[in-house]
Structures are given as structure tokens and as C-alpha cells.
Amino acid sequence: MFPNFDPVAFHIGPLAVRWYALAYMVSFIIALPIARRLNRLAPEVATNEQVDDFLFYAILGVLLGGRLGYVLFYRPMDYLSHPLEIFKTWDGGMSFHGGALGVILALAYFSWKTRLSFLAFADRIVPVVPIGLGLGRCANFVNGELWGRPASPDLPWAMIFPTGGPIPRHPSELYEALTEGVLLLCVMLFAASRPQVRERFGFLSGLFLFGYACARSFCEFFRQPDANIGFLSGGTTMGQLLCIPMALAGMGLMVYAMRRPAQVSAHV
Asked: HAMAP family annotated for this entry (predicted)?
């Protein structure tokens, strides 16, 4: 049986701090010093103060992009009929693909504003993104949401979720936390530690896009599709469909980076 977690982590007076919000806050707190450390590695890309300043833009990109992505990708007709529901973020509803677009736009604007190389600066930021992905999926699990497809009762870790009916299901949130979070973080940090990779601006960004697309597409085979969408043509899911352009963009960026000469400076 699914553990009876309280979706509220703690209270500060009348304010209820939920696990999902806490996951966002903790991920930014953990990711910032790691991003600062990556930024100090050669070739020089930006100052640590610029990395700190970008945190505000990253938060806006994640929150606005994630919410609008969910509205447009998953429930456009529902929110078109009830537009005020878009602002009820406390009821849940965030999309990683939308959040990714939001952060990309934030990176582009911040790089233009500060005259930084967009691809070089993005390469210093994306390796820490899996921290937020992993903690976010853990929060999904605590909330008992986004559970998986029916599983064999013989599967030792199959669970019966409160809102998933009486049948055992895959805890797909934990699969995603391990692949999109832990595994992808290890891959990104290892790649970022190699000087020959850092000198190919855009390679780390492409590796992240491709790696996430592969991890998410794999986990979608165990995750129950959103009830309002269901399965798409050929038994695919919306999550897998959205990963196709992400994977193609990632491969394109890696090829582009490898075909260009190694860079020793990140000046625009």
C-alpha cells in the first residue's frame, strides 16, 4: 500500500509549505553552488555574480514555462473554457517540457542582456537541472500523483495508490527520479568534468536534451498517461511525443558542437 504521506511538509503560521514547493526551493539551493563551481572551470564563461543573477530568471522560466506548458500541451480546452483556472497553481499542473522552454528563453534573454555566449553559458547551467527533476519526481511520489501503469502483483515494489484504484501499479515517479534525476545528473557532471567537452560549446546542452528525452521516453512505458489525453497513435504518449523534437535538437546541438573547433574563450 502507498504510504499515507501528508502533502504538506510543514506550516509557517497560516502558510502551508507543500512538498512540491519545497522540492523546487531545495533544488535551487543545491544547484546554485554546483553551477558556480562549474562556472569556474576553464574556459571562462561568466562571473559567479552572473550565475547568481540568473537564478531569478531561471525561477521565472521554470514556473511560468512549466505552468503554461501544462495548459497548452495537456489541457488546452479545459483552460480555454475556464481561463481563471490557469492561475490556480496550488491545484497542481506543471509540464517539464514547458519549463524547459521557459528556461531556454530565460537563458537566451539573460545571455543577450549580459553579452554572454548563449551556448557556453547554457552548458554551465544544464548539468545541474537534473537535481530539480529528481526532487520534483520525489515530490510527485509523496503526493501520490502521476502513478504508473498496472503492474504484476509479484513485482516487489508495485504499489496500490489511493487514487489509482485497487490494482498494483508501477511507482513510475521513482523510476523518473532515478533516471531523469540521479542517472542524468551523474552523466552530466561526468561530461562537464572533461575539458575537451567543455570546450565544445553546445555539447553539454545537447547531451542534456538528448539524455532527458531518452530517460523520459523510457519511463513513459511505465507511467499511466494523463486521463484527459490517454494513449496516442501507436500506443505512444504525449510525453514521448514531446520528447521527439527534444531528442532531435539535442543530437543536432552535439553534432554542431563537435564540428566546430574547440573554444578557449566564451566571449560573444
From this structure: Lgt (MF_01147)
Please answer whether residues 31 and 252 qualify as being in contact, where contact means their C-beta atoms are separated by less than 8 angstroms.
Answer: no
- The SS3 call for residue 174 is helix
The alpha carbon of 173 is separated from its chain's Cα centroid by a whole number of angstroms, namely 13
Is 137 annotated in a binding site? The answer is yes
Give 18's strand partners: 8
For residue 116, give the amino acid letter: L
Closest CA relative to residue 120, chosen from 59, 55, 204: 204
pTM of this prediction?
0.89
> Residue 76: which residues within 8 A CB-CB, separation 6 or more?
none
Rounded to a whole number of angstroms, the distance between the first and last alpha carbons of the chain is 55
Q: Could you report the per-residue pLDDT of 201-233, keeping only the tens digit for each?
A: 999 999 999 999 999 999 999 999 987 788 998
